[in-house]
Amino acid sequence: MKRLEWFIEALLNSYAQVFFSNNKWFGTILMAVTFVDFYVGMYGFFAVSTALLTGHFLGLYEPNVRQGYYGFNSLLVGVGLSIYFEPRPLLLVLVVFSGMLTVFVALAFEGILGKYGLPFLSIPFILVFWTLRLATRQFEALGLSERGVYFLNELYLLGGKNLVDMYEWWNQIPFHTSIKAYFLSIGAIFFQQNIFSGFFAALGLLIYSRIGFTLSLLGFYIAYLFYIALGIPFSEISYSYIGFNYILTAIALGGYFIIPNRNTYLSLLFIIPITAIIGISLQQVFDKLYLPVYSFPFNITVLLFLYGLKFRVDNRIGLSTIFWQQQSPEKNLYNFVNYQERFGNGSPIPIYLPFFGEWSVTQGHNGAFTHKDDWKHAWDFEIRDDQGKTFRDEGDFASDYFCFDKNVLAPADGVVEVLVNDIEDNTVGTRNLDKNWGNTVVIKHSEFLYSKLSHLKKGSILPKIGDKVSKGEIIAKVGNSGNSAFPHLHFQLQATPFIGSKTIDYPISDFWMRYAGTESLEAVGIPPLDAVVSSLTTNMQLKKAFSFVIGNQFHWETNKGEAVVWEVKRDYWLNTYLECQATGSKAFYKLDEGTLHFIHFTGDRESLLYFFFLSAYKVSFGYSNRLRLQDTFAINMVFQPNRLFVQDLFAPFYRYLKGEYTLNYPEKARGIGFQPIQLDGKITKSAFGQEMETSRFQFLIAANGLQSFEFKNRHSQIKATCTAD
Question: Which residues, by range, are in coiled-coil regions (predicted)?
């Protein structure tokens, strides 16, 4: 049974993938829907099984096979063939071959469209099915199906009088015409021409995704009203297998490939009518070939729209494409919102503070003096004492200023592009307006990302043009050259390598900040005027405890007598994670030079790894006295699905649930040698701002790393001791 586990998972996912899902229960419901017509169900099963076995024996990437990516198109081909032709051995042979062919067509389009970051959707199904429909006109041994004429007889043979009565009861329910058409359209995705199938497919969609369900209704009714406005009888989309185009388009562009929000819902008002126009026009063409359009309008619309979005230079329309597909509109939304809250100003290349110790922002972005217009995104940094002064004595000399002659560091790895190193330092109170920027270094970090450090001390710049520099490397000293009346460090990011280039709004990563009486550790951010900032000095105990090395194992013994083993791994997409050997649970993380961030969890929420994921959600390897870190969770990571059902319906517009994280650091230890460090924190779940539940946790870190971990709430209390790593 263990050897067939992959097949069962892939089989159910293949059914669910028709609606962009990997939910096993949804897949089970949809599989059952296909068996309303027994032969449709059987031939669909044979087709998808053939595709999965083909992918397995070809050695395709197993996670993609398990997700059903190569199975759902074959499934659609199988059920389509069984509708058109009589069940017989020859049809079974055709279904098997078509299942194999569909896999190869899917691989081809995965390669072609994948280059542009686009999905292949149901294009393999369409091309293979059209090919078979044209070819089978010459296959005289294949008889056209007449089973629809005797459908009730077949139901009777399958489930007796009770099944027939239930089927007729459903068809006699006085639904509004549009509701009947909706159920017929959603059932037609699996070539089922009855309300019974459509209702249960819609029910499965509701269970799988509340957002997906509401989008299916929205897409369908926009098309319904559009057809009425055009004066086209709606039965033409109800019974010709094209009504589902609007349902699938709405789900795909409203919440699956694009993060669902009010803008995606509004965009459907324009996208769905375009899909309808494409469908109506294509039908005129394919009618001449005696071929239906199937899901071709859906494919064209989605691919054109997604491809068009790739040419944007900004997101003024408010449509954000998926960067980590969670196979659920709700999960996509919650994780995207959470990622924006945590790393929203983030950047592909982190830029760090260019100095040691604590410095003050004496002019920030949109500053009062020189940071204006095209040069508004910049900082001036100085050092202040406890009284807020930037100099000793009277401040008459440059050497009186605390920041003068202090080391300037490379803010990230890069190559020196431009430098000026021979401008005299000004006497205090005077400026050199002819050499506005003074002694300057410009470092290239990547295409269109350069840092510029100005007003440096004459002759202090160490590297030469073309030299490589490393993050944290000393490259110069603070001076008072150029348009500078007193010593300070000017720091900016820009897209071009020239001295005097326009600035860009680019954040600084991983810095400690004291501002308006509050201390915080910022993953990314723009330090404001008067903020005191520094790069925290790494505590080696903390770094050893929470810096996970690929291939390492962590061994734990719990207070329940369980032995738990985790291994540090990296997946095909280079995501790093901890995996529990016993449960298969995975906790994905991002490890910066000074901070550990957990990002995502999959698996058993009663496992020790899940509690560790919650507790170590954000850990800084450096800290000030009594530093308090705060962060927020994606709400689907901390709330159970039953709590989220109602929230899911309103999530694109309003989120009333919240999960918050707090980690408290102790006072810095004094004395010689390593001393144990205790970290305490809590996780708070709330609704409408009212606290619902609080969990508390504690870490004890010894000289050799993590020593113990404790987590407790009203449901669980667990303590684990690290026995080896």
Answer: none
Please tell me the distance from the alpha carbon of residue 275 to that of residue 283, in angstroms, as a whole number: 12
Task: List helix spans (H) across 500-565.
Answer: 540-546
Per-residue CA distances from 501 to 349, 421, 496 (Å): 20, 18, 6
- Please say whether the beta carbons of 181 and 234 come within 8 A: yes
Alpha-carbon distance of 574 to 593, in angstroms, equals 17
Tell me if domain 1-145 and domain 177-322 are identical in fold: yes
Q: Is the pLDDT of residue 604 over 80?
A: yes
Gap between the Cα atoms of 18 and 294, Å rounded? 14
Q: For residue 14, give the amino acid letter.
A: S
Confidence check: pLDDT of 725 > 70: no
Two structure tokens written together for 342 = 């945590």
Domain 359-506 sits in CATH at 2.70.70.10
Is residue 376 classed exposed, middle or buried when 0-12, 13-18 and 19+ CB atoms within 10 A define those classes? middle
Q: Counting every residue, how long is the chain? A: 725
Mean pLDDT value of segment 14-25: 88
Nearest 5 degrees, angle CA 89-CA 92-CA 98? 145
Residue 561 CB partners (closer than 8 Å, separation 6+) = none
Task: Give me 7's structure tokens.
Answer: 């097949």
| Domain boundaries, given as residue ranges, for the chain | 1-145, 177-322, 359-506, 540-724
Which of 626 and 235 is assigned the larger pLDDT? 626
From 191, 200, 81, select the one nearest 143 (Cα to Cα): 81
CA-based radius of gyration for the chain: 31
Count of C-beta atoms within a 10 Å radius of residue 433: 8
Tokens of 463: 């590297």
- The fold for domain 177-322 equals Ammonium transporter fold (1.10.3430)
**DSSP symbols for 420-466:** E--PPPPPTT---STTTT-EEEEEEEETTEEEEEEEEPTT---S-TT
CA atoms 332, 334, 339, 341: torsion sign? positive
Angle among Cα 325, 327, 329 to the nearest 5 degrees reads 90
Residues 6+ apart with CB under 8 A from 453: 354, 408, 411, 440, 441, 443, 475, 476, 489, 490, 491
Q: Which residue has the higher pLDDT, 559 or 454?
A: 454
If you average pLDDT over residues 682-696, what whole number do you get? 92
